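Ticket #4471: structure export looks truncated?
Reporter: QA, pipeline team
Priority: medium

Steps to reproduce: submit the single chain below to the structure queue and open the exported record.
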Amino acid sequence: MRHPNRQLRCSACYHGSVLIERVHIRDYRNIEREEIEPPPGINLIFGANAQGKTNFLDAIHVAAYLKSARATREREIVRGGAQRARVEVSLAREDGLKNQLSVTVAGGKKFVKLDGNSITRFEDAIGVLSAHFFFPGDLSLIKGDPSLRRETLDYEVVKAVPSAVRPYADYKRALMQRNAILKRKDDAGINGSEMNAWSDRLVAAGVEIIRMRTNLLKRISPRFIEHYRRISENPGKTEIGYVSSVAGKVSGKSREALRGSFSKELARAMEKEAELGYTTVGPHRDELLFTIGGESLRRFGSQGQQRCAVLAFRIALCDVAREIGGEEPVLCLDDALSELDDVRKTHLLKSLEGRKQVFITLASKKELKLVSSCAAKIWEMKAGKLSPISRA
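Actual output as written to the record:
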């Protein structure tokens, strides 16, 4: 059963800032049972390593994205000896609307409820809790495989435009069918009519994906540049570019032009693809490129520059979400201050001023002393339990 009120489908349907009024976590990794009511503003979560700080933020990530940011298999998030893990968040919005969202993981399956009603479609739950996250492993957004960058961007596309689920599903099916044809070719060659039919569907859905990605990047890019300069104090020009495998520069090209380029590239690659047995061009092969001074940030950027870039990207996503849907997301930063000097830490904190709700984890007492004055509340995490503490 889907939620009876269709206006509750997506973040773009909400107005004003979203606040987490209550978080209830049960049997999530090392967190046996926890329930807190975080206030608006900056919530600092302090504690030694391996106490559960990251697990707490990851539980919020499950509520926001319906998946863990860390676990590759869902059963990994269930506490040892427990049958199921559960995350429940109570949300309040400036327009007075309140929601209760819960995600239960049991037996390798997910069960999602919104205001007591079961949700079975991804697009009906994604964006109910609008939130963005930074985890130390997110440096792979710059250093890792291009598929990570594509996936990150695609999640944001679907959050902004839930109907985008359809072209993504169409593209996935067309790609699977086209690859199957390439793999099963026989002495008679490839079935031309069948291949053409699936290629046409691949092009139609792929062009929509490329356009949605690049339209969103147009909004993200100027804010990313602004936040990177503010955090890093680096005068070098830092940019995000979209590298298409089918059209080179996409900006300014019409649907018809993109379709023509895509079809032409598929025809050109056909002989090679027949040998390889898979499709080599399309948005599943496109790249998101971070550059500094015109050079690849992945190849030439320092660890500090890469960290600043990922932080700037995450904060820029918050700005764009507010612009598109009128709702400011919750921002969760895990160990974001480490590896930044005191000047950059101060700049990062200034960029968070005025945001409605932020969670920051930290393990250093020096960092806690530096940032405690800006906190609405400070929590200490010990062995999976949170408790409020006085200011440092």
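Status: closed, not a bug. The export was complete when the record was re-opened. Leaving a note from the reviewer for reference: Residues 1-12 have pLDDT under 50 and may be disordered.
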